[in-house]
Write a structure and sequence with these properties.
Number of helices: 2
Number of domains: 1
CATH architecture: Beta Barrel
Shape: elongated
Largest sheet: 8 strands, antiparallel, barrel
Structural class: mainly beta
Strand content: over 45%
Strand order of the largest sheet: 1-2-3-4-5-6-7-8
Distance between the termini: 38 Å
CATH superfamily: SO1590-like
Length: about 160
Amino acid sequence: MRKIAILIAAWCTGAMALPASAADDLGNGRRVQNTTAVHEVEVGDAAGHVVGVVEFRGLTFFASGAIATHVNSATFDLVNGSGSHEGYVVHYFDDGSTSVERYRGAARVAGDGKRTTIEGEFECVGGTGHFEGLKGEGRYRGERLGSLAAGSYVYVDFEGHCTTP
């Protein structure tokens, strides 16, 4: 009975943590972000065809319990709001560590034009501090609420495995 009480006390105080590989897996969670900058240009080959760059900033909530701020810089090639995108997300953790993921996917505007579904694949390509050598991959899916304009909101759910050696 005493052993059980000690184990419960250790668990409640955090003395019994998950194994490092499980606790540090950054492959699962939700990113919530706001569009902070957009620059697009008309291609000129078809009505509504634009290419450009966009920057998002926000918070990432990892399934491990970690929370980080992030900057997401991307390029896009869209026709009437639908098309391809790719970019990088850099996460900034309180201890000064960073993690970096590269992604590529597609955006599809809903029939009413008020929401855009985004989905694709990501690869964890490194980091600093606690996440130096971070590697892994996964998939993501989410939505942009409103147009691709400064001030619009995006959420992204991601699932995969990204760990350090």
